[in-house]
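Hi all, long-time lurker, first post. I run a small reading group and we've been trying to get comfortable going from sequence to structure in the token notation. Rather than ask abstract questions, I figured I'd post a concrete chain and ask someone more experienced to write out its structure so we can walk through it together at our next meeting. Sequence below, copied exactly:
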Amino acid sequence: MGETEVGTGLRAKLRAYVEEAFLYLHPDVELRDEDQFLELGVIDSLGFVELVEEVQSRYGIAVDALEITEENFGSIDALVAFVERRRPS
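-- Answer (accepted) --
Happy to help. Here is the structure in token form:
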């Protein structure tokens, strides 16, 4: 699956945010894009709230409570797909 240049930049920005905001607490974790945040203990429920708020403010996306799921926010891959689907053109 090829990503556009925009998609690649989006992935890098989301990864950088997750690393800055959450991974410093887990220096032993090597996070891959498909790794589940909750399974690895990288992000807890409060972290999920912070992540959702960041996506909303950074990308201008209104996230409905029903969209706050692991399928949309559970990994780098999930975040990229969600933001690309929902980001205003």
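A couple of things your group might point at:
Residues 1-5 have pLDDT under 50 and may be disordered.
The radius of gyration is 12 Å.
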